[in-house]
């Protein structure tokens, strides 16, 4: 009982509490750190590739929308001059064909009549 201390009625054994000194090999610790850094760089590279692809797809969408906007502007300027663009005529005749006009047989004949009368 000489090497154990008595603290408040309990026997305390030395060296059993607290953090033990690190006995990890320094080379292994450095290698783990290097490996972690490699993995971090790989994750960063993948993240940047994903973001670049996302940006390029958004840029393509913006270009398509700008082209569509230019087309609508041309249509509006043509309509301001009293001309109806052929695309709008096609859209209007397409909408008329979709409207219900009674039975299915009557709709088919009216489609044929609209096409032949407009041509």
Automatic annotation (TrEMBL):
UniProt keyword Nuclease, yes or no: no
UniProt region (Disordered), positions on chain: 1-23, 93-119
Coiled-coil spans in chain: none
Domain of life: Eukaryota
Pfam families per the UniProt record, alphabetical: bZIP_2
GO BP, one annotated term: cell differentiation
Cellular component, GO annotation: nucleus
Residue intervals of the BZIP domain: 26-75
Molecular function via GO: DNA binding; DNA-binding transcription factor activity
Compositional bias of kind Basic residues: 10-21
Chain segments annotated as transmembrane: none
Subcellular localization: Nucleus
Keywords of this entry: Activator, Differentiation, DNA-binding, Nucleus, Transcription, Transcription regulation
Chief location category: nucleus
Family: Belongs to the bZIP family. ATF subfamily.
Protein name: cAMP-responsive element-binding protein-like 2
Annotated organism of origin: Perca fluviatilis
């Amino acid at each position: 009982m000489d090497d154990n201390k008595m603290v408040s009625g309990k026997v305390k054994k030395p060296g059993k509490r607290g953090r033990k000194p690190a006995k990890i090999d320094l080379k292994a610790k450095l290698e783990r750190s290097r490996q972690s850094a490699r993995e971090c760089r790989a994750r960063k590279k993948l993240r940047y590739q994903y973001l670049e692809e996302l940006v390029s797809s958004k840029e393509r969408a913006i270009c398509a929308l700008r082209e569509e906007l230019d087309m609508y502007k041309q249509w509006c300027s043509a309509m301001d001059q009293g001309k109806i663009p052929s695309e709008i005529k096609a859209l209007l005749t397409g909408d008329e064909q979709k409207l219900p006009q009674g039975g299915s047989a009557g709709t088919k004949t009216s489609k044929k009549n609209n096409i032949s009368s407009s041509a």
